[in-house]
Every structure is written in C-alpha cells, then in structure tokens.
User: What shape does this take?
Amino acid sequence: MNAQVDLTRNQALVLQALDGAEGPLSAYTILDKLRDDGFRAPLQVYRALDKLQELGLVHRLESINAFVACCQPHRHDHEMIAFAICGKCGNVDEFSDSMLEERLGTWVRAHRFKPAKTTIEIRGACADCADAERELESPARSN
Amino acid sequence: MNAQVDLTRNQALVLQALDGAEGPLSAYTILDKLRDDGFRAPLQVYRALDKLQELGLVHRLESINAFVACCQPHRHDHEMIAFAICGKCGNVDEFSDSMLEERLGTWVRAHRFKPAKTTIEIRGACADCADAERELESPARSN
DNA sequence: CGATCATATGTAATAACATTACACATCGGT
DNA sequence: ACCGATGTGTAATGTTATTACATATGATCG
Assistant: This one.
C-alpha cells in the first residue's frame, strides 16, 4: 500500500529525518541527526538519498545543496517540478505547472535536446518573511 | 563603450578564461588556468566571479557548480534565463522565454513570494550527442 | 543445500567546492 | 594628506560529494 514498505533501514531513517524536518536538510545535517541510529559516514546518507530520489520520495534542491521529502510522493505523472525556496525561514513550496512544462518542452523539441533532469528553483522570501522584513524597514504601523 | 573597460585585472582574466573556454568551468579549473597569471588562491577567482555575475557578464550553473560567460551581456531586460546543459560535450545553450517568465511570475504573485534569483536548468544531451549515442546503440547504418 | 548474482552496508580516505579572517594596496574625492 | 570604498594576497578552514575496498544480506536457481 505504501512505497516505504520496500525501503531498507537506512533509507527509511533518512526519509524520516527529512519528513520530520521543517525545511530542507543538507546531507551532513542528516548524518548528524542519525548518529544515534548508527550512521557514521556521509556515504550512508548519500546512498540512501540516491535511492529515495530514484523512487521519487525525495528531491534535491540544486541551488542550495539540500534535500527535501517530496510532498506528493504518489503523483508520478509529472516529471517537472518547481520549487520556491524561502531563504529566511527555509520553507519550500513544491509545485508543478503543465504550461511551464509545455513551454520548456517546446524549446527542447525545437532544439532536439534530450532532457534528463530539469531544475526550476526560485529563491527569495516567502510572503510571511517578506512581510516581516517590510515591517523592519518601516516599523510601528501595524499595531 | 564596453562594460569590460571597468573590469579590474583579476576580473578581466577570469572573464577571458570563461570566454575562451568551450563550455562551463569550475572555479578551481579557472584557478588552474590562471596560475601563470599570478593566481594562487580560490578566493581570487570567487571574488572576480561574484563581481562578474553582478555585472551580468557571467552566469553560475547551480546544478553543476560551474560558471559560463554570458552569451548576450548587453541584454539586461530579462532577468530570467534558462540553460540547456549537455552532460556529454559540456555545451550550454542560454535562452530566455517571456512566457516562461510570465508563468512563473503568475505563481509568484499568487503566493506573494518575493523572488531574488531564479534557476532554470535542463541537463541532458544536446542534439549532436544524442545522435552519437543512438548510433552506438544501433551501429552501422549511417555509412 | 550451496553457488551465484544483485543490492545494500561499513569505513576510511580523498576530492571538489566555497567561505572566513586578516593584513595590505589602490584609487577617487575632499 | 586624509578618508572611505573597493580590490587584492594569503592562509586556514568549512562544507559538500565521491572513490575505493571489504563485507553482508537476500533472492533465485540448479
């Protein structure tokens, strides 16, 4: 019923670590979290991450060298996923947009490019953090 | 007349290295290329790269930790640039698409996200390399 | 059962990428 | 001559990822 059934111990531990986290984690942060579970070396984390990515349960955020649990592990019909990453609070929004996909597909076909993996990442500030920052600039108004 | 006029020696050297290269270069590759010009430390490269990116003369390819010279340093009207990166030959196609930009802009506005930098990178095989690979799979036909 | 093959694991070492910290230099404007 | 902004040189360190090699686990098949 659940894809996690097939996971090995190490893979399950890494996925749990990511699931429990607020935002994206670096491989070494995951390693530290799993010391008590017997993890000793980076490779243990990277190997689990590789498998989890292969299964579509985890995504790698290329622009910040970190990993997140997929928020919709059941939808495998879209290959192209975009991320909005808040640099302040670390929150990540995962979304897919068929028009976006189609638009890139058009370019790819026109140039006979054979895509393997596509990365779309917007870094910036989420609504909440952007608000908080505005407040700092012009304080004492929303009281 | 030319933006390069304002560049310092280090910045100019780094830009030349990238301009002369076939494809993207890592910071450490650039460092090695510039040893004879007096470069000794990574920071010299990274500082120059920072400035060149700021000036829009160089782009960073987040998904492969490498840098390329901008192919159209004069066009500053588009902020959103996409890259198609061939993993075989290393060739990089730089393109921008207003519909793509608009589509992401729609999402961003809807979620009141304040974007700082957007990364769009397609890794795969360019037409030539994809052809070459197909030839290996089913040989002896194009003679 | 035992041979074999694919997959997963443990560990150490090393490679590759990037930043911090501090001292000094250069140059334009007052 | 002084000041401030920007750039440079160098060493050390921090962070991210891979290579290499030995061992283990588990499924399949004769």
Q: What stands out?
A: The interface with chain A takes residues 62-63, 82, 84, 86-87, 93, 95, 97, 99-100, 103-104, 107-108, 111-127, 130 of chain B (CB under 8 Å). The radius of gyration of chain B is 18 Å. The helical segments of chain B are 9-20, 27-33, 42-54, 98-110, 127-137.
